[in-house]
Specification:
By secondary structure, the protein is an alpha/beta fold. It is 42% helix and 20% strand. It has a 7-stranded mixed β-sheet with strand order 3-2-1-4-5-7-6, with helices on both faces. It binds calcium ion.
Length: 223
Amino acid sequence: MANQTLGLDDRLYHYLHSISLREPAVLTQLRRETAQHPMGRMQIAPEQGQFMALLIQLMGARRALEVGVFTGYSTLAVALALPPDGKIVACDVSEDYTAIARRYWRQAGVADQIDLRIAPALETLDRLLATGEAGTFDFAFIDADKSNYDGYYERALQLVRLGGLIAIDNVLWSGQVADPDVKDKRTHVIRALNQKLHRDPRITLSLVPIADGLTLALKREAG
Ligand code: CA
């Protein structure tokens, strides 16, 4: 997967960063530590974190959901954009990756705003639905195992309010979704979800070609 914006050459990408990135120091430190990690390419691009933070502010979001935390960069970017009473429910299966995340959340002073649930995310989302939290979230970010993307999307769509926003990461999948010679399972799942969203009447849709492709799906009345 790509962890810089696709389709820009290095010079233009560097320019974009040089004239627009306003990354807080704690996020820069976390990004640099994660870059040393064997799975470091799973981290979102900094311009994407900044874009999502802008969306949070634009919406006046107070309650966010994150599916797939890894080392916590996107969670932290969102948390820093929420108001002081804002909350994030963050789902991941890895104690190891999220130990790094927790360290930076504490350093940034937002640890109390993040409710980390270590469990398969489908179970956590089902539990939220079972405990009456449907329609209570303003924003959801889906960036986890691709095989369950459709299940995450369907649950997130129930958990966000009308007018709430779901952001789905890696929908351009380094360009592989458009290459007919690529036929693996994960690419197939992303293609299928992209096609489903294209005609889904429950959402207002925009696929933003930032980083590895970020679909924005705004929940609306069906019909
Ligand atoms: Ca991702």
